[in-house]
Amino acid sequence: MRFARIVLGLVLTLAGLLATVPGAVAAFWLVGPDNTVDTGEQRLTSKGLAVMTAPDLLDRHGPTLHVTASSAKPVFIGIGPDLDVSSYLGSSQYTRVVRLNLPPKFDTQELNGGLTPLTPPAGLDWWTVEASGAGKQSISWPIADGSYDVVAMNADGTPNAEIGLTLGVELAGLFGTCLLILGAGVVLLAIGLLLMFYRRRPPPPVPLPAVAVVKPLPEYEFAQCGPVQDAPAQDPAPHQTPVDREPAYQSPSYKGPVRRVAGGAALLLMTTGCVAMPVKNTSAPITSRPAVTVADGQAVVTRYNDLNNKANQTRDPKISATIEGEPTLTMTRAGYQISRKTDPAGQHLSKPFSYLAPKIGAPQFTSYPMRFVVDSGVSDDPNSRQLGVWQRQSAGTPWLLTQSVYPSTTMQLPSMEGLRMPAKSDIDKLSSLPQSAAATLAVYLTGGTRSTKAGLFTPSPGLVNLLNQRVKDATADIAKPYIASVIDTFRPTGEPVTFITSAGEGLVFLSLTEQYLQRIEPGSNAYWTTGDVTAFSSMVKYTQTLHRDYLQQVALVIPLKGQGKIRILSVDGQLVDAGGS
Questions:
Q1: Torsion angle of C-alpha atoms 533, 538, 544, 546, degrees rounded to 10
Q2: Position 118 pLDDT exceeds 60
Q3: What is the distance between the alpha carbons of residues 40 and 404, in angstroms, rounded to a whole number?
Q4: Per-residue DSSP letters for 73-84?
Q5: What end-to-end distance do the CA atoms of the chain give, in Å?
Q6: What is the DSSP string of 286-351?
Q7: 24 has pLDDT over 80
Q8: For all residues of the chain together, what is the average pLDDT?
Q9: Phi then psi for 13, rounded to 5 degrees?
Q10: What is the 8-class DSSP label of residue 92?
């Protein structure tokens, strides 16, 4: 039995040491009361533009990730979806952290590419969490299921990033788990030592009572004394009396208590460990996401309102280029050119206005470019709404307003809820392909209200006014003695931008060029003397033709097959050129 106790004690002692030492090291050196284990500061130098973790480095979710970065220059740190980070860095040169070894050390991989400075990262809206500035910058983020990257770089987006990076993971209850392991180890160690070295003293021997031996008399002596009488009853001889003895010594059984202590400790460890253990990511890598959140979309519109008013007050197309893209930017530049020509003193500048209460329609995208649609009120025109498309070419570029029309409040606009990009099956269900609708619309507008294609469309009030105005212009121009004829021609330009509404209809934004051409009578000449056209051609004599060129933006709804006409929501134009031959 003693040998068995020694063996069991030795096993428990070794188990206790194996639990006590790591538990103490983990609790008081690696973790601490904040439940966080970190890598310590690792100095990383990249000749490129950033230091980025590989997506599979954050392959578990649940705990909180703490990131601290420091640099001699202002530094930026951020965590974002791999879809956006990969687009942002693109073909730039950067350093990728591919593995974390113990003792803490990062294995890195240098990815070659361009060194053109990137857009400062702090101005981008897709970061999940970010921090930027001089000195140490820190962020904390509860790791989500999905594919995310940690990025550290110079705050201005320039190359040659030299950064001290610390990654830490906070596991709920980790410090308590370490203490529990330490406590369990101490208990096992104490029990093991007790079993090995404790020896119970054997009990002292029990002394036996003295025994008197009575020698019986011979029979003849009884005969000499008289009749034989019965002898008085005597107690049994002492050596025949049963004696209660202490039972033999048995080694006490430690199996029950040890099993209960070890089982309870194991149960507590497993319970605590399960709570604190990070969960393996189950979601597939983020392959699609909404183009923008509602809050971020509204922030884009707010930024546009501020910068657009500044651009209008200074007639500065460079400011407009930071918030607008084609074809809207071409129309804005032309408007500024006309304004500077017709109002050089700036006495009739546009009054500040804003897009109000924007409703955001953000489809899912798998890659850049991304787009979203906004339906908003207009502060200086209560009878109109603004329907616009914002586009971002890559994760490192700003959102730009590319299509913009102003439908009347009398028009029923599609809901922004459930807006999505079209699949082939969606297009097949529409009554017309978007490209075909654009070409047919151009024929309709060129022919006017008498066009054979007019019956395919339900015109907006603005389109009716446009066609009536062109008829009046043509009638007045033909009446001039030096004008022989007038031709007004519309042509599609660019690719239509199509979305599918929650009703399955196609919301289409397209552009048309319009050339209003006047043929000059032979032997005559003509030139522009007044009006907006003088911003492009003034006092230049032409003998054959005069022309005014417009850019028209159109928004329309293509219904499902068999469900009616194509509804034109708005047609908005801008004179962009003029001249002659």
A1: 0
A2: yes
A3: 52
A4: S-EEEEEEEHHH
A5: 119
A6: ---EESS-HHHHHHHHHHHHHHHHHHHHHT-HHHHTTTB-TTHHHHHHHHHHHHHHH-TT-TTPPP
A7: no
A8: 83
A9: -65, -45
A10: B
What whole-number distance in Å separates Cα of residue 85 and Cα of residue 387? Answer: 30
Predicted TM-score (pTM) of this structure: 0.76
CA distance 242 to 533: 137
Residues 182, 21: Cα–Cα separation, whole Å: 7
Q: Which residues, 6 or more positions from 159, have their beta carbon under 8 angstroms from its beta carbon?
A: 46, 47, 48, 49, 93, 115, 117
For residue range 160-194, what is the model confidence (pLDDT) as tens digits?
988 998 887 766 555 566 666 767 767 766 676 67
Which range (59-68, 129-138, 224-233) has the least confidence?
Answer: 224-233
Give the relative orientation of helices 255-276 and 174-197 as an angle to the nearest 10 degrees: 160
For residue 285, which of 88, 127, 86, 148 has the smallest C-alpha distance?
148
Of the candidates 52, 127, 39, which has an alpha carbon nearest to the alpha carbon of residue 96? Answer: 52
Sequence-distant (6+) residues with CB within 8 A of 57 are 97, 98, 99, 100, 150
What's the rounded Cα separation, in Å, for the pair 445 and 254? 99
> What is the rounded average pLDDT of the residues 483-492?
96
